[in-house]
Write a structure and sequence with these properties.
Keywords: Membrane, Transmembrane, Transmembrane helix. This protein is mainly α. The protein has 4 helices and no strands.
Amino acid sequence: MQYNNMSTIISVVQNISLIAAGELALASGAVCALAVLFKPLLRGLARAAVLVVKPKRSKEEQLQRRQMRDAMMLKRLLNSMEGDPSHAAELRAMASRA
């Protein structure tokens, strides 16, 4: 009689685990389907969150940063080419136009 009760318990546990696995698969499928359905909305929310943390610079700020970066690059080039006067003069001319 002990053996019969044990097999009944094992079969019940196996059935419960199969049911739980099926429910988990259905739930994960539903979550994936909703994610695909609302993908544009989720992407927009993510972009808005990024903009809250790191705001986009204005056109003027972008231009100033670009000009500063170019000036620093030209200065580094000038410092590295101190030995060659023709290249240094050419770089100074480029720097005066920038």
